[in-house]
Design goal:
single chain, alpha+beta, Lipocalin, 2 domains
């Protein structure tokens, strides 16, 4: 009976929520799979402190990937959360990309495992029990339990830096139409891709045959952009000087990761 209820709940969730194959920031927090919240939000761009939730997050990630996920990933997540809070969207996704958690080969199955683990833990199942159900080596479980004791004191909500106030962008000297070229240095992406860039009030939109990016240019010419295309996602950063811009980019997809450089020129 419980198994049937779980399957029914899964089908309802799957119909209602698009599956995110990689960790993604959303209004409800840092999410993965079919709406599973890894770290909940406590306000605009503010996520709950990770302290005290480390084993919980590792258990959910391990369920999604069907293997033990390295605890070092938590550092990438913490840096991503800090960048997201400070309004640095591109940098936040770069930190998540550095976790090296690739898109699962079977996205739906991974999302279902994550969904089951989420429900089990909401019902009171411990992170240790989830690890054991995944047949993860006991030494890993012991190390996680030793390093991340759930009973340790937690930093009260609201501690730390206050989130940056949203920027109201006015017309920028970098606005206008630009042409960009993205060149691949390593990875399975095409050697070069051209794109059209449109800037308005400091906000940029990049459209190319490989997908789209959106971001912003600061008053000093710093460029940051992120984008998604199906199960793939990417991030780009760089700088504008006069009518020329350049920087680096990286993309992550089921077939592997790519890194490269980009240049742009005002039309």
């Amino acid at each position: 009976m419980l198994e049937k209820q779980l399957r029914d709940d899964w089908h309802a969730r799957e119909r209602a929520v698009p599956i995110q194959p990689i960790m993604t920031f959303a209004p409800e927090g840092l999410v993965l799979g079919a709406g599973t919240i890894l770290i909940p939000s406590e306000g605009p761009r503010r996520l709950h402190n990770l302290r005290g939730r480390q084993a919980h997050v590792l258990a959910l990630l391990s369920a999604a990937y069907g293997r033990a996920v390295a605890p070092s990933v938590l550092g990438n997540i913490e840096r991503a959360v800090t960048s997201w809070r400070d309004g640095e969207e591109c940098l936040a996704y770069v930190h998540l990309a550095h976790s090296r958690l690739q898109v699962p080969s079977d996205v739906r199955t991974a999302a279902y495992r994550l969904f089951v683990a989420e429900h089990a833990m909401k019902a009171g199942v411990s992170a240790s029990a989830v690890f054991q159900a995944l047949n993860i080596d006991r030494s890993y479980i012991d190390a996680v339990e030793k390093a991340y004791n759930p009973a340790q004191p937690r930093v009260p909500a609201g501690s730390g830096r206050t989130s940056a106030a949203p920027c109201a962008y006015a017309a920028s000297k970098f606005d206008g139409a630009w042409s960009a070229v993205f060149r691949t240095k390593s990875g399975p992406c095409p050697p070069a891709t051209r794109g059209a860039v449109q800037g308005a009030n400091g906000i940029i939109e990049v459209a190319s045959t490989a997908g789209s990016l959106s971001g912003r240019v600061s008053r000093t010419g710093v460029v940051r952009a992120t984008g998604h295309m199906g199960a793939n996602y990417g991030a780009a950063a760089g700088r504008v000087s006069g009518n020329f811009a350049s920087g680096t980019w990286q993309a992550h997809m089921a077939g592997g990761s790519c890194v490269g450089v980009w240049t742009a020129q005002r039309r």
